[in-house]
Design a protein that fits this description.
5-stranded mixed beta sheet; alpha/beta; 3 helices; single chain; 30% strand
Length: 134
């Protein structure tokens, strides 16, 4: 499947940027979009989480199809529960665990989200209050 055909079958409003194609996505739509991307042959590349300002999180899931980057971009409140895609893309497990450690993101649909980089006893969210650039 081509990237254009995959964007069409996945739905949503995709925007071309110099680094690939981006689609604003509500957190609740991520699982369905991830399944469609997987079924179209895209591979999971990364999950990036940032806190652009206090009280807000930005999550971007990056997928690759034949060298074309396809990105799902979602905003969430720090206390929101975000659907896990680790069962759709097992490689997302570590990315979700890192997001939990650094930003205290809670993922729905996981039996557990054990620490990846934190030591036992460390509280998740070490980066949650970092905010964006001044």
């Amino acid at each position: 499947m081509t990237a254009a055909a995959l964007r069409e079958s996945t739905g949503g409003s995709w925007t071309e940027r110099p680094d690939g194609w981006w689609r604003p996505t509500a957190p609740g739509e991520v699982r369905a979009a991830a399944r469609a991307l997987r079924d179209g042959g895209a591979r999971f590349a990364a999950l990036v989480v940032s806190a652009p300002r206090p009280g807000a999180l930005r999550l971007t899931w990056h997928f690759d199809l034949g060298g074309t980057l396809l990105t799902l971009d979602a905003a969430a409140a720090p206390d929101a529960r975000v659907p896990s895609i680790a069962d759709v893309y097992p490689g997302a497990d570590w990315a979700e665990r890192e997001a939990r450690d650094h930003y205290a993101v809670a993922f729905e649909g996981r039996a557990a989200t054990p620490p990846l980089v934190l030591r036992d006893g460390d509280a998740p969210g070490v980066m949650a209050g970092a905010g964006g650039p001044p």
